[in-house]
């Protein structure tokens, strides 16, 4: 029975050490992401012109196209 207790304590210590290592790795990765974001992304700014964005998404709409009604076969 004492062997089982020793084995359980050993596994518990291993789990505790593994948790510490994982937490340290996650903290280092998070720090790396924050540093990279600060260096390369945070100072960038994009100016968006709503008319230009709309025309790039929807394409140019001519007045004749927007006013026509019915199907093209009716003409």
Automatic annotation (TrEMBL):
Spans traversing the lipid bilayer: 21-40
Keywords of the record: Membrane, Transmembrane, Transmembrane helix
InterPro entries, alphabetized: CydP (IPR054636)
Name the UniProt record assigns to this protein: Uncharacterized protein
Species name: Hydrocarboniphaga effusa AP103
